[in-house]
Amino acid sequence: MTDSISNQSSQDDLDLARYSRQILYKHIGETGQQMLGAARVTLIGCGALGTVLANTLVRAGVGFLRIVDRDFVELNNLQRQVLFDEQDVTDGTPKAVAAARQLARINSGMTVEPVVADVHSGNIESFLDSAQLILDGTDNFETRYLINDAAVKHGLPWIYGACVGDEGMVMPILPGRTPCLRCVFSEPPPPGTGQTCDTAGVLGPIVQIVASLQIVEAFKILTGQVDALNRNLVQISVWTGQYHSFEMQRAFDQGNCPCCKGGVYDYLSGEQAGHAVSLCGRDAVQVRPASDSKIDLNAIAAKVRLVAKAPPTLNRYLLRFEVDNYEFTLFEDGRAIIKGTAEPEEGRSVYAKYVGA
Length: 357
Prior knowledge:
This protein is an alpha/beta fold. The chain has helices at 2-18, 20-24, 29-37, 48-60, 86-91, 95-106, 124-127, 141-154, 181-184, 197-200, 204-222, 249-253, 297-304, 344-354; strands spanning 40-44, 64-69, 111-116, 133-136, 158-164, 167-173, 233-237, 242-246, 275-279, 284-288, 313-314, 318-323, 326-331, 336-339.
């Protein structure tokens, strides 16, 4: 009993030392820090916003973080995605895995669960299991509307964040109390009409600012201080120094949103079917099979070895090879990112040829 008390006292002293500056802040304190330590968060997307979000949460002592991301680390990520390095690029490490490894070195007392997966209507609810909060680290509206549907259905708060060029937006969403994403943006912008990081670029500072604003609102939610939320839609241009805060509550109070007022979850009710989508600005297509199931990457590597331009590279998470004019990155759930075409039909055809129908 004495040893147990002593060990607990030692751990408490370490926690006080690690989080002392945060505990001193009047709106956190020891009680708030304990609540952060018990908190469980799901982060969807681990790119620019996602790495800053994950980094800050783990340093702040949030006890459990589930990171869900479908992609792998590439050289152009390093300019703004703070948890990755050149070795991750060389190894082709999945972002969720690379982030979890780095976060374990930052704060070994926290639990980080990496999930290498494409978020879709058939699996998103499983990723929200036991979560108190969802954070948006995505780069596309389709996934954000899917998050919105799942969050509203389960009454989970989530925090929208987006940035491109020098501009960014942030808005916390409390289902049933504040406007949801569809209250504010009833439909996603048509393909090709909006700027992306691949067409307009993105400055690292706007990523840091948007993610920081998301984290502040996350702290309020996780420490039970939802009345302190800034419920407005905040828009920032870091280059010009412009800051706008738009009151959106009337969109919920007076609106007739099909999602949060009508209980219609158009994005969440999508059929579980394989599909291929063009990845904007990357001359690449993502192909997902009809169902998530483990595939034998070693067997595929052996099959394509005779036709690949160079020996395939393989790790426990993915297989990479070049064949004809295409570069494949194949994940163990059967999903592939195929560079060399922006046409979904072509991507499906090439996938069937080299991986299987």
